[in-house]
Amino acid sequence: MFFPFYWPERLVSYPLFLVSLTLAVTLCFACRYLVNLTAFWLLDIRGVSSLWMAASSVLSGLYFPIAFLPEGLAAALQFGTPFPSLMQFPTDVAVERDGLPGQLTRIGVQLAWTVILFGLALYVQRRALRKLVVQGG
Questions:
Q1: Distance set, CA 63 to CA 58, 88, 106 (Å)
Q2: What phi and psi values does residue 43 have, to the nearest 5 degrees?
Q3: What does the alpha-carbon distance between residue 119 and residue 122 come to, in Å, rounded to a whole number?
Q4: What is the pLDDT of residues 24-45, one digit of tens each?
Q5: Cα–Cα distance, 72 to 132 (Å, whole number)
Q6: Dist CA 116 CA 111 (whole Å)
Q7: Which of 23, 41, 42, 19 is nearest to 110 (CA)?
Q8: CB 89 within 8 A of CB 106
Q9: Model pTM?
Q10: Is the dihedral of CA 47, 49, 52, 56 positive or negative?
Q11: Closest CA to 85 of 117, 120, 46
Q12: pLDDT tier, 1 (very low <50, low <70, confident <90, very high otherwise)
């Protein structure tokens, strides 16, 4: 209402945004799947779910852009955690932050976190199922 809507200037930004958005949804699924896998070990996962909701909301750029943080902290958060890949990176790709190299870097980070977290989810699920079988479930 108060600011003009930004339309990407390069046509390549539109498919890159769709790729980034797809990776963000896939990564969010992997994170939520890991959170829900804690039900194999905990009687009640509401605390873990609440912690996930609070952390993902604050650290993903939902409440404030990650760029508002000090430079070192922002870099550590962007590349050391999967949270910015959920919301901040698709937004950065859409507004063409740091040009094409920045867009490709963000998509690469999203892809890396997606592979890492799906691998971790597979490992945790195998451990959980083995525990379930040992207990006779």
A1: 6, 10, 20
A2: -75, -30
A3: 5
A4: 999 999 999 999 999 888 888 8
A5: 43
A6: 9
A7: 23
A8: yes
A9: 0.87
A10: negative
A11: 117
A12: confident
Rg (CA), the chain: 18
HSE of 14 in the Cβ direction (CA atoms, 13 Å)? 4
Enter the tokens of residue 82: 């999967």
**For residue range 96-137, what is the model confidence (pLDDT) as tens digits?**
988 999 999 999 999 999 999 999 999 999 998 886 655 555
Instruction: Count Cβ atoms below 10 Å from residue 102 Cβ, excluding itself.
Output: 14
| DSSP structural state of residue 11 | T
Burial class from Cβ neighbours inside 10 Å (0-12, 13-18, 19+) for residue 86 reads buried
Q: Taking a C-beta distance cutoff of 8 angstroms, is the pair 121, 37 a contact?
A: yes
